[in-house]
Design goal:
The protein has helices at about 15-20, 30-45, 65-75, 90-100, 120-125, 150-160, 205-210, 225-235, 245-260, 260-280, 310-320, 345-360; strands at about 5, 55-60, 80-85, 105-110, 135, 140, 145, 160-165, 185-190, 200-205, 300, 320-325, 325, 335-340. The protein is an alpha/beta fold and about 375 residues long.
């Protein structure tokens, strides 16, 4: 069986030991399994540097987008007004979710290769005192840009707004002190920087904020408040949970700890990301995002010339067990290279060697 190196922001390349945990069948009602759920909830608070007395963790079935929608369903009442920042497809998706829910939304757009203008945000919030919540994507995987989480959260704290952070592609790979940043809801997923497999996401939530959300959701399955109350009893999920995924995620957390925690993993990601960018530039592939706002997670590269055939390039690399990620830019032909997961310098050295061979073969 071919084992691909997934150069994506998730699903990603996982260790054999993480995959091995999925070989055992588990019962959702079993006390050992419920204890496993409770252990994961506690460890996520530790990773997020959040006090157990002030914060809690809720696990939720589904992809990352399911969990984002769950938070919007639950955190927003009919009287609330949310400001959503967007400089990529996932910020836009959050806006669309809130609009479909008929929530009051103010959308603030920035170019895909630019971070939000902090002064503009301050002015918008000062001019509209009805705004109650602020939401944004930390690492926007559309391009790989890393938004300024500290500065944005500071604005929200100053104006007494609740903060919703989509940290899907950064939590576990970029240090985030949830409590220090005064975040109300941080959202991430099992198959990202903690290096588990797809199947569920999670929310680190401020207890005082979540306590106020009873009855807000107009969805049964996406009611984060009800999920929290039920899970608090003994670790039992309201509906059938992805037992195999949960077990593999527990192993993935253990391996994060063994690596040295988030700081050490961040350093590995950052080092490999820098190596990739430097080597790709030597071959004529320019990054779309400036280095000052580039995340260590994934990088968007522009086509080197008009004749570049990404499909041909993709198939060449896939045939050699490296799977690239298509671009999401409508106005600029591009592709992306992710460097999270169980990938190390030797993997990227081989990747660069193969890309060089491809370029020579194509006479470029």
């Amino acid at each position: 069986m071919t084992q691909y190196k997934l150069l994506t922001p998730g699903p990603l390349t996982t260790t054999e030991t993480v995959k091995a945990q999925m070989l055992e069948d588990r019962c959702t009602w079993d006390d050992d399994y419920k204890d496993l759920t409770q252990s994961i909830r506690q460890k996520l608070l530790t990773i997020g540097m959040a006090d157990t007395n002030k914060y809690t963790t809720v696990l939720q079935q589904g992809s990352g987008s399911f969990v984002v929608e769950s938070v919007l369903q639950t955190a927003l009442s009919n009287d609330d007004h949310i400001l959503i920042i967007s400089n990529g497809a996932y910020g836009e998706r959050m806006i669309k979710m809130a609009q479909v829910m008929n929530k009051r939304v103010t959308s603030v757009y920035s170019p895909y290769n630019a971070i939000p203008n902090i002064n503009e945000l301050k002015q918008i919030i000062e001019d509209d005192t009805t705004i109650t919540h602020l939401a944004f994507v930390h690492c926007e995987t559309t391009t790989g840009i890393l938004n300024p989480i500290k500065e944005i959260c500071e604005i929200a704290t100053q104006k007494n707004l609740q903060v919703i952070v989509d940290a899907m592609s950064s939590f576990g790979g970029v240090p985030i002190n949830v409590e220090e940043l005064n975040i109300d809801y941080l959202i991430s997923s099992a198959n990202k920087c903690i290096q588990g497999v797809p199947g569920f996401g999670f929310v680190i939530a401020k207890r005082t904020s979540l306590e106020l959300c009873k009855g807000n959701a107009t969805s049964i399955s996406l009611d984060l408040y009800d999920q929290w109350k039920n899970m608090n009893i003994d670790g039992k999920w309201r509906f059938t949970s992805p037992t195999h995924v949960v077990a593999s995620f527990s192993q993935a957390i253990r391996e994060l700890e063994e690596e040295g925690g988030v700081v050490q993993r961040y350093q590995r990601y950052q080092s490999n990301n820098t190596y990739i960018i430097n080597e790709m530039k030597k071959m004529g592939f320019e990054p779309y995002v400036k280095n000052t706002v580039q995340s260590p997670i994934i990088t968007t590269f522009l086509y080197p010339n008009e004749s570049f055939d990404f499909k041909d390039f993709y198939e060449y690399m896939k045939h050699r067990n490296f799977v690239l990620y298509p671009g999401k830019l409508m106005n600029k032909p591009s592709f992306r290279i992710g460097n999270i997961g169980d990938l190390h310098r030797n993997d990227f050295e081989l990747m660069i060697k193969l890309i060089k061979q491809y370029r020579i073969m194509r006479g470029e």
